[in-house]
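User: Here's a structure from my thesis project, written as structure tokens. My advisor, Dr. K., wants to see whether a designed sequence matches the one we expressed. Can you design one independently, without my sequence as a hint?
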């Protein structure tokens, strides 16, 4: 849970610096809800963090192209498990293919 707590704090720091609002909400009645250090989280399965910036063919259907380059920022590459061409589990095979 320490990693999840760090991730949440980091996201809040980024949102604050950007002047963005955080609308994250976890429902205590959710089957994956847990509390840690006074904060609520939703934890499900192995929590493979994948597919958060979809890879695609155009700016309108994705965040990155086949080379994991951001459509909005020419010199920004979003590499790692977030760039998934599909949302299937387990994501390991898709991640391995994307590295080549």
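Assistant: Designed independently from the structure alone:
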């Amino acid at each position: 849970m320490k990693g999840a707590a760090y991730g949440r704090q980091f996201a809040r720091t980024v949102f604050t610096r950007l002047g963005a609002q955080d609308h994250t909400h976890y429902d205590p009645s959710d089957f994956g809800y847990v509390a840690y250090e006074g904060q609520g989280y939703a934890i499900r399965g192995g929590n493979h963090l994948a597919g958060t910036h979809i890879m695609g063919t155009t700016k309108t259907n994705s965040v990155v192209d086949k080379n994991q380059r951001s459509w909005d920022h020419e010199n920004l590459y979003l590499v790692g498990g977030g760039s998934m061409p599909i949302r299937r589990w387990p994501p390991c095979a898709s991640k391995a293919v994307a590295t080549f």
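When you compare it with your expressed construct, this may help: The radius of gyration is 16 Å.
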